[in-house]
């Protein structure tokens, strides 16, 4: 598809928007909402809220990953874009898996957070995977959204 096509620009906007919504939402939630929620509600209520919010963040991450991978596979050369998008989606799949396990533990305790060591271990893994995914998202923002100027090649005749 020629780059002058309106469909190309609409697609580029959709890819950028999906990445910005997921990465920005995750950043805002982790930096602002979680600390305020813990301060306001405490551990149990904050955990129950986080359980619901992370479903939406995971949906946004899945959509962003799919858009990025489709975009990477659509354009030539594929270089690091396909690798970054694949990593983002693989980590997202792991987060969905961990989220379902953590949610099952929370449901069995009804209205309170589990106290078992395995729950907290998996929760720490979830947080680390999310952190790595956030960093990959930052790299995706750089690769997809920052357009560096072309570096001029020195003319040997000079």
Fraction of residues in helix: over 70%
How much of the polypeptide forms β-strand, as a percent range?
Answer: under 5%
Largest sheet data: none
Question: Mean pLDDT across all residues, rounded?
Answer: 85
Structure overview:
- It contains 4 helices and no strands.
- It is mainly α and 158 residues long.
- It has one domain.
- The mean pLDDT is 85.
Explain the layout of strands and helices.
Elements: H1 6-41, H2 43-74, H3 79-109, H4 117-145
Helix pairs in contact: 1-2, 1-4, 2-3, 3-4
In short:
The protein has helices spanning 6-41, 43-74, 79-109, 117-145.
Name the descriptors:
single chain, 158 residues, mainly alpha, 4 helices, elongated
């Amino acid at each position: 598809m020629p780059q002058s096509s309106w469909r190309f620009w609409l697609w580029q906007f959709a890819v950028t928007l999906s990445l910005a919504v997921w990465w920005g939402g995750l950043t805002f939630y982790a930096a602002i909402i979680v600390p305020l929620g813990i301060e306001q509600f405490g551990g149990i209520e904050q955990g129950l809220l986080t359980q619901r919010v992370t479903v939406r963040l995971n949906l946004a991450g899945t959509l962003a990953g799919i858009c990025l991978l489709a975009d990477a596979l659509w354009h030539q050369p594929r270089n690091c874009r396909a690798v970054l998008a694949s990593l983002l989606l693989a980590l997202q799949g792991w987060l969905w898996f961990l989220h379902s396990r953590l949610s099952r533990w929370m449901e069995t305790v009804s209205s309170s957070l589990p106290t078992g060591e395995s729950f907290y271990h998996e929760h720490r893994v979830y947080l680390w995977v999310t952190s790595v995914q956030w960093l990959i998202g930052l790299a995706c923002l750089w690769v997809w959204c920052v357009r560096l100027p072309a570096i001029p090649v020195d003319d040997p005749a000079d």
